[in-house]
Design goal:
By secondary structure, the protein is an alpha/beta fold. Helices cover 35% and strands 17% of the residues. Bound molecules: flavin-adenine dinucleotide and iron/sulfur cluster.
Length: 477
């Protein structure tokens, strides 16, 4: 049992951020860690409820949250780390960039502020790295089975680590020059510094995971060859096909997919590129109001954009300034303002883009109109109506399309395998097994664009299924 009355005596301490003018001068993480003493106090706010919703329905990887909250309050940080390691291969990623559905389902969120679960998670793993508790755990027995993992995002990495620890020989193939998927090339350093990925990769390499970078499976190596050389294949290629905006003028220069902008910026930061799409001195329009759009804003701001607009077609969510969750224990649909939004941008909702115009082939203006949404009743789809006379234009120099992703990149090499896809174009699986024996899929390639914590979870679960399948094969030999 945690601290009796802990939550009555102590309020929630929110995450702290570096001052805007300071953090805009670099790309380093915007948050400031609280001390372990402060977070031990926060752990003491956990009520250790009989039914911990944070663990059971909040956290996709079912982290043992009440147990580690109790442990840190008692100063048992090593114990907390050991409990955390059971369910989460990479708490340093989730402790930084998870949207923390655990906190919205914390029982305290019914009428109070939730426990700082995400900050606690980050503090536990950072202390573990500082103390040298994060060590390689190579397998004691080798099975002689081989698995090829295609894609090195959180799904591929989690699967690779689990499979290697189970004794299989694992090779991760990545088409980019560096490992990490969207953790490295999508998410900017100001949310997740790349040294955090490199630190973890050292452990995987020491455990015996082999990484092959700069290899595009399907182009450089055929899938058939890979299958012949391995006992199982895991597709973990993410959902890289961005949603298009098919309006007149779309092909003008200066209109880019958000991921082209973000990946170039990340490559510039890590020294892979000398130059790229640049927002310096430009009026930037980000179309799309989600996480990717927000990352574009923070990046454009650091590059020196003069003005930044963000237009979203959906209605503005409810403004909610209370600490408790109006939809407890579910995820609330409320207005979220990220650290990047606070660095300066103008946000508008209910806006539809109708066309772009250019000068000399380069975008110079966007045209828009305002719309209204009518919510569908009894399962009908919501409908859109245009507000008459609401057309307007905006002079822009750079447009970033951040309207989400439709599915994985449908290369011919992959489609030629004949693996069944679902109605949205993702790889269809039963559990994590595709319809072709020995081929598995996990993460965004399987469920569509989602979250790091879900990809991590799917990677772990797919690894378990692959392991069971391989072991069955071994028994039959
Ligand atoms: C800009 C942005 C910001 C985000 N921010 C957050 C956030 O703050 N919090 C959060 O929880 N989620 C966030 N997400 C979502 C999250 O990053 C993804 O859900 C997660 O990374 C998916 O993991 P994955 O392993 O399935 O795929 P990915 O991370 O996409 O990795 C797939 C990898 O496969 C490689 N690959 C693809 N095809 C091949 C091939 N043929 N051969 C070899 N390699 C191949 C790709 O190069 C890539 O490295 C964000 C996404 C974006 C785009
Ligand atoms: S992984 Fe996400 S949901 Fe789970 S405990 Fe950490 S922050 Fe919460």
């Amino acid at each position: 049992m945690g601290k009796i009355n802990g939550f009555l005596e102590k309020g929630r301490e929110e995450l702290r951020y570096r001052e805007v003018d300071v953090r805009l001068s670099d790309y380093n993480e915007v948050t400031i860690d609280r001390t372990v003493e402060e977070l031990a106090e926060q752990g003491g706010r956990c009520m250790e409820c009989g039914t911990p919703f944070c663990h059971s329905i909040g956290c996709p990887i079912v982290n043992l949250i009440p147990e580690w909250n109790n442990a840190i309050w008692r100063g048992q940080w090593r114990e907390a780390f050991e409990r955390l390691e059971i369910t989460n291969n990479f708490p340093e990623f989730t402790g930084r960039i998870c949207p923390a559905p655990c906190e919205t389902s914390c029982t305290l969120s019914i009428n109070d502020a939730p426990v700082t679960i995400k900050q606690n998670e980050r503090a536990i793993i950072e202390k573990a790295f500082d103390e040298g508790w994060v060590v390689p755990r190579p397998p004691r027995v080798e099975t002689g089975k081989t698995v090829a993992v295609i894609g090195s995002g959180p799904a591929g990495l989690a699967a690779a680590q689990q499979l290697r620890r189970a004794g299989h020989r694992v090779t991760v193939f990545e088409k980019n020059r560096k490992i990490g998927g969207l953790l490295r090339y999508g998410i900017p350093d100001f949310k997740l510094e790349k040294r955090i990925i490199d630190r973890r990769l050292e452990q995987l390499i020491a455990e015996g995971v082999v990484f092959e970078t700069g290899v595009n499976i399907g182009e450089d190596i055929s899938i058939r060859y890979l299958r012949n050389k391995n006992d199982a294949i895991l597709f973990a290629m993410g959902a890289g096909q961005p949603r298009e905006l098919p309006v007149p003028g779309r092909n003008l220069k200066g209109i880019h997919f958000a991921m082209d902008f973000l990946s170039q910026s990340n490559r510039r930061q890590n020294g892979e590129l000398a130059s790229g799409i640049d927002a310096r001195g430009k009026t930037v329009l980000v179309i799309g109001g989600g996480d990717t759009g927000s990352d574009c804003i923070g990046t454009a701001r650091r590059q020196g954009a003069s003005e930044i607009y963000q237009y979203e077609i959906m209605p503005k969510p409810m403004v909610w300034n209370e600490t408790w969750n109006p939809s407890w224990p579910n995820w609330p649909n409320i207005l979220r303002t990220s650290s990047s939004h606070k660095e300066g941008c103008r946000r508008e909702w209910n806006i539809e883009t109708t066309s772009f115009e250019g000068t000399g082939g380069v975008v110079s203006r966007g045209k828009f109109r305002r719309i209204e949404w009518t919510l569908g009743v009894k399962g009908e789809k919501p409908s859109i109506s245009v507000i008459p006379g609401s057309d307007f234009s905006l002079d822009v120099d750079l447009v970033l399309l951040a309207m989400g992703f439709v599915h994985f990149e449908h290369s011919k090499a992959l489609l030629d395998q004949g693996i069944e896809l679902d109605e949205r174009g993702n790889i269809k699986t039963d559990g994590y097994h595709t319809d072709i024996e020995g081929f598995f899929a996990a993460g965004d390639v399987n469920v569509g664009a989602s979250l790091v914590v879900r990809a991590l979870n799917h990677g772990r679960l797919a690894a378990r299924e692959i392991h069971q399948w391989l072991i069955k094969e071994l028994k039959h030999q």
